[in-house]
Design goal:
Layout: E1 5-8, E2 11-13, E3 21-22, E4 24-28, E5 31-36, H1 38-41, E6 50-53, E7 58-61, E8 63-68, H2 70-76, E9 80-81, H3 88-99, E10 108-113, H4 126-130, E11 138-142, E12 147-150, H5 152-157, E13 170-174, E14 181-187, H6 191-194, H7 202-218, E15 221-227, H8 231-242, E16 249-255, H9 259-265, E17 276-284, H10 314-326, E18 330-335, H11 338-354, E19 363-366, H12 374-381, E20 384-387, H13 391-394, H14 398-402, H15 404-407, H16 413-418, E21 423-425, H17 436-444, H18 456-462, H19 465-470, E22 488-491, E23 508-513, E24 516-520
Parallel strand pairs: 1-6, 2-7, 8-15, 9-10, 10-11, 15-16, 16-17, 17-18, 18-19, 19-20, 20-21
Antiparallel strand pairs: 1-4, 2-3, 4-5, 7-22, 11-12, 12-14, 13-14, 22-23, 23-24
Helix pairs in contact: 2-7, 7-8, 10-11, 11-12, 17-18
Length: 523
């Protein structure tokens, strides 16, 4: 068999433990047909074969992000980016510039602020936003996505007043003296505002997602686990594929509200092809650490009156999990606090016991705050910890939030890996940057609780072999082996050979999906 494409003189890190290094790859159609030395691959070459001399550049399997909100990322590319803002004044200045571009009355959206990074050491309020945007409704979402601030115009449109009662699983923050809403809305209280904001039409969303795909492949991503919110997003994924703009391979994670539709249609995890597959059912069990809505077993260290919010009772979680499990759907349950993780494990133990299934691979998304008792339970259940390493960087305040004792058990990646728990890596973009190399850097070079640093090899596996396992696709992706899909990337540096802090400066020079280059860095 002759190859369509051959790469030679490369430093190939295959992630295949039985053959970890190679020099050349041969590709036919969208598959790898040869991996070895230059001499071993030479017989695959004929006159029509395209050959690329990589001049010792490093090649690794394509990255897989197991937790990304790509539609939200696409939308964010057209909103105010508030990531890294250091003061309310800076937020106001960015908002002012956007107001100058917009007609009066048009909604202005932004995302990415974090009160723990602000000089004022407090939440922005409606009145802060009113100073620069009195005539446009404004909603600025916190970096975690579990809390937002709205100005007076937006609150008025949503009919949120001092008389408005907070929903059971959310909170409208109010001034303790006047009872006036401050503009801060937590968890399900945000829905009061979101139902009033105009949604982009399908054509606009398709273009936003197309741009997000292009940004994703520039970071070396070849597959993503795309968390959707509506059936429209499935239609958008199909449209992008038909228009040859999808670029990435997609494993669709659907929201709980679509569970009944999937079961009625008889759709199950893995339905689809190598480009688009049905994946997991996403269920929220709690909120976020940043918004103090993650459900903890003990109160927050910096807010002793709070322990977070459980969004479902154990009984309700159990009913939902059983329904999905029996329909052969993988569960991806959002659980950040240790109380929530404990409840999720209790539910999964019952579900698996009552309806045994050999290879369920159910997932806990985030698994942020653990404790010594939860680790062996996760191991016994063979659950996957779907983690987002860049949270280590963003949540620099974690010791203050949960106290120094519990901080040891926040993002304990090394402990999870040492206990043989399968751990996959993602970004949770747009909450965190979509770039996998930043996640790898965060896990390898972490400064907070350095005893939980992991090796470069383990960090790479989060986004390659382990990520492929998390979607039941380890036989076709995640490593560079004969028979697998020709998904790989070329890096500017070998991550094993540079200092941990230099990993974040490494560049993706080429991204290849199915034997086709979808991104080549200029120069």
């Amino acid at each position: 068999m002759y190859a369509d494409l051959v790469l030679t003189n490369a430093n190939i890190l295959t992630m295949n433990r039985s053959k970890p290094h190679a020099q050349a790859i041969a590709i036919k159609d969208d598959r790898i047909i040869g991996v070895g030395t230059n001499q071993e691959i030479k017989p695959y070459v004929r006159r029509s074969t395209k050959t690329i001399d990589l001049k010792e550049k490093t090649v690794i399997p394509g990255f897989i992000d197991t937790h990304v909100h790509l539609t939200a990322f696409g939308k964010l590319l057209g909103q105010i980016n508030l990531r890294g803002t250091g003061s309310i004044k800076e937020i106001q200045e960015k908002l002012r510039k956007q107001v100058q571009k917009m007609p009066k009355g048009q909604w202005i959206l932004g995302r990415g602020w974090d009160q723990d990074r602000l000089k004022e050491e407090r939440y922005p309020t409606r009145w802060d936003l009113d100073k620069v945007s009195p005539d446009n409704p404004v909603v600025l979402t916190r970096v975690c996505g579990h809390l937002c601030v709205a100005n007076s115009q937006a609150l008025q449109i949503a009919s949120i007043t001092k008389e408005t009662i907070s929903p059971p699983t959310g909170q409208i923050d109010k001034n303790p003296e006047t009872d006036e809403p401050t503009g801060i809305l937590r968890e399900d209280a945000m829905a009061l505002i979101w139902k009033m904001t105009p949604e982009p039409n399908e054509e606009q969303l398709t273009e936003a997602c197309s741009l997000a795909c292009r940004k994703a492949v520039e970071t070396g991503l070849t597959s993503i686990h795309w968390l959707i919110n509506t059936p429209t997003e499935i239609h958008i994924i199909q449209n992008l594929h038909r228009q040859k703009k999808l670029l990435l391979r997609v494993y669709i994670i659907t929201p709980l509200k679509l569970l009944s539709h999937l079961t009625k249609l008889g759709l199950y995890t893995g339905f689809g092809d190598n480009r688009i597959r049905i994946g997991s059912i996403k269920i929220f069990s709690d909120g976020s650490l940043g918004a103090r809505t993650a459900a903890l077993s003990q109160p927050y260290h910096d807010k002793p009156t709070r322990k977070g919010i459980m969004l479902h009772s154990v009984e309700e979680l159990s009913r939902l999990a059983t329904k999905a499990h029996k329909a052969n759907l993988q569960l991806a349950i959002h659980a950040i606090g240790d109380q929530a993780i404990d409840a999720v494990l209790t539910v999964l133990e019952k579900t698996v016991r009552e309806a045994p299934r050999k290879n369920h691979r159910h997932r806990i998304e985030h698994a942020s705050v653990l404790n010594r008792k939860l680790i062996p339970r996760m191991k016994r259940l063979n659950v996957i910890a779907s983690i987002q390493p860049h949270f280590i960087i963003s949540d620099f305040w974690v010791a203050n939030r949960v106290g120094s004792t519990r901080a040891r058990w926040v993002y304990p990646f090394r402990t999870l890996i040492q206990n043989d728990i399968s751990v996959s890596g993602g970004s949770d973009c747009p909450i965190e940057p979509i770039d996998p190399l930043l996640g790898i850097w965060a896990a390898v070079a972490r400064k907070v609780c350095p005893e939980e640093r992991i090796t470069v090899d383990d960090a790479l596996r989060l986004y390659t072999t382990n990520a492929a396992y998390a979607s039941f696709e380890e036989s076709i992706k995640g490593s560079i082996e004969v028979g697998k899909l020709a998904d790989f990337i070329v890096l500017s540096h070998d991550p094993y050979e540079i200092s941990p802090d230099k990993i974040r400066d490494t560049k993706v020079e080429m991204t290849v999906i199915g034997g086709r280059a979808v991104f080549v860095r200029q120069g």
